[in-house]
């Protein structure tokens, strides 16, 4: 039988700002109590599935780092090697960072709201450098210098994430390692778009639930050999629907 590789994607658990229904992007908010519970449950799901991650990839945001740590602790794999990159960060949400989603929907209308949230190539307005939620000058992005994003559309995320997928993540997969990538709603949408060959239009409909491992089996060209599976499909469907409806949340 041809060799296959195992890739596990995990969106961080519910965050404080998911709970408050605020656009988050690169703002480094922590997990809510619910999110901690989701992350621990992800560990149970991993353990029950018999999957044993050999290496962890995370963004540089603590909600992803904490989620991975809770999940790996639950699966008895907290000791595995870790690589972090800003290239796995959430999409930078520009001037929307810190804004209430329901208020933004009410103020700008459903079409503009959906364009900013889910269009492939229209970024929100850029954040001002002196905005309290700007990441300019944040020590964790020193390597980016002045190139720290002021806003991003999903296409920008694909463009900055794919080089890392190719230079690092696929190398570990090719070495036969089971790879866990713990990241964010939109950085994982970018990766799923690439893996599943989803069109620029159809990706608008894809939402990733918090805290439920999504398992890919890939061939030697990193192409899925079968549809990826969530370790709890029912909870994943409910979670994805809740993300899609976020603007309407009161
Ligand atoms: O606010 C954000 O950064 C993201 C993820 O929480 O939200 P959305 O699903 O609206 O893209």
Automatic annotation (TrEMBL):
The active site is at residues 12, 90. Keywords: Gluconeogenesis, Glycolysis, Isomerase. Its EC number is 5.4.2.11. Belongs to the phosphoglycerate mutase family. BPG-dependent PGAM subfamily. PANTHER family: PHOSPHOGLYCERATE MUTASE. Catalyzes the interconversion of 2-phosphoglycerate and 3-phosphoglycerate. NCBIfam families: pgm_1, PRK14115.1, PRK14120.1. This is 2,3-bisphosphoglycerate-dependent phosphoglycerate mutase.
């Amino acid at each position: 039988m041809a060799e296959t590789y195992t890739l596990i994607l995990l969106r961080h658990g519910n965050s404080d700002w998911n709970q408050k229904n605020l656009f988050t992007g690169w703002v480094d908010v922590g997990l809510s109590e619910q999110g901690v519970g989701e992350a621990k449950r992800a560990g149970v799901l991993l353990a029950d599935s018999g999957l044993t991650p050999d290496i962890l990839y995370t963004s540089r945001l603590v909600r992803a780092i904490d989620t991975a740590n809770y999940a790996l602790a639950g699966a008895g794999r907290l000791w595995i090697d870790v690589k972090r990159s800003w290239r796995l960060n959430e999409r930078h949400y520009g001037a929307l960072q810190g804004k209430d989603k329901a208020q933004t929907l009410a103020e700008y209308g459903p079409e503009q709201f959906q364009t900013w949230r889910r269009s492939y190539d229209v970024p929100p307005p850029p954040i001002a450098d002196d905005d309290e939620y700007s990441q300019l000058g944040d020590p964790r992005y020193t390597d980016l210098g002045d190139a720290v994003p002021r806003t991003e559309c999903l296409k920008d995320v694909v463009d900055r994430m794919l080089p890392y997928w190719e230079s690092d993540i696929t190398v570990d997969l090719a070495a036969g390692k089971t790879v866990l990538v713990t990241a964010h709603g939109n950085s994982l949408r970018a990766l799923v778009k690439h893996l599943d060959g989803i069109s620029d239009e159809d990706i608008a409909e894809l939402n990733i639930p918090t805290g439920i491992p999504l398992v890919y089996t890939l061939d030697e060209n990193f192409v899925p050999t079968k549809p990826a599976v969530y370790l709890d499909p029912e909870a994943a469907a409910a979670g994805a629907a809740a993300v899609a409806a976020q603007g309407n949340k009161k």
